[in-house]
């Protein structure tokens, strides 16, 4: 286990990120201790350091058991264009240990940096296969 997400603020670690969430607080912890409880994940991919102040975007992606290998291959072979975008700080792609939902978390300087990424050609290139499936 490399990371976990939980609704209760961790008390026995300093390595957590408080994620503002509309429904309830959410906490992301890397290198959790044995006593922590939450949804457990292993790192599929990780780039960059987690800053203390940032804008975090979390995508929850349900993947069937039979689709896991293809999903993981896609992310392992991604171009990584997001990492060169202005305002980008880090990315975490998390493999679930007990659910079917992968987490793709990108960390930015601010909301404006993320919005500019969404409007960029690099974003369109990175998400072209998803857009093609919608047609």
Mean model confidence by pLDDT: 80
Please tally the β strands and state the result: 7
CATH class descriptor: Alpha Beta
* Spatial strand sequence of the major β-sheet: 2-3-1-4-6-7-5
Helix content: 10-25%
Number of helices: 4
Q: Looking at the structure, what is the overall shape?
A: globular
At CATH level 3, the topology is Alpha-Beta Plaits
Tell me what you see in this structure.
With 135 residues, the protein is α+β, with helices and mostly antiparallel strands. It has one domain: Alpha-Beta Plaits, CATH 3.30.70. The protein has 4 helices and 7 strands, in the order βββββαββααα. Strands 2-3-1-4-6-7-5 form a 7-stranded antiparallel β-sheet. Residues 131-135 have low confidence and may be disordered.
Provide a compact summary of the structure.
The chain has four helices and seven strands.
Key words describing this protein structure:
7-stranded antiparallel sheet, Antibiotic biosynthesis monooxygenase, 135 residues, monooxygenase activity, monooxygenase, ABM_dom, alpha+beta, disordered C terminus
Could you outline the blueprint of secondary structure elements for this entry?
Elements (H helix, E strand, L loop, with lengths): L2 E4 L9 E4 L6 E5 L8 E9 L7 E8 L5 H9 L11 E9 L4 E8 L2 H8 L2 H6 L1 H7 L1
Antiparallel strand pairs: 1-3, 1-4, 2-3, 4-6, 5-7, 6-7
GO molecular function: monooxygenase activity
EC number: 1.14.-.-
Enzyme class: oxidoreductase
């Amino acid at each position: 286990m490399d990371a976990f997400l939980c609704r209760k603020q961790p008390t026995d670690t300093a390595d957590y990120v408080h994620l503002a969430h509309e429904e309830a607080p959410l906490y992301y912890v890397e290198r959790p201790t044995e006593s922590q409880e939450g949804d457990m994940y292993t790192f599929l991919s990780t780039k960059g350091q987690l800053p203390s102040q940032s804008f975090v975007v979390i995508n929850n992606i349900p993947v069937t058991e039979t689709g896991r290998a293809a999903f993981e291959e896609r992310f392992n072979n991604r171009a990584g264009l997001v990492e060169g975008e202005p305002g980008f700080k880090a990315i975490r792609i998390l493999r679930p240990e007990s659910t079917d939902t992968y987490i793709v978390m990108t960390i930015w300087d601010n909301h404006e940096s993320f919005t500019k990424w969404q409007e960029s050609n690099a974003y369109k290139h990175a998400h072209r296969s998803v857009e093609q499936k919608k047609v």
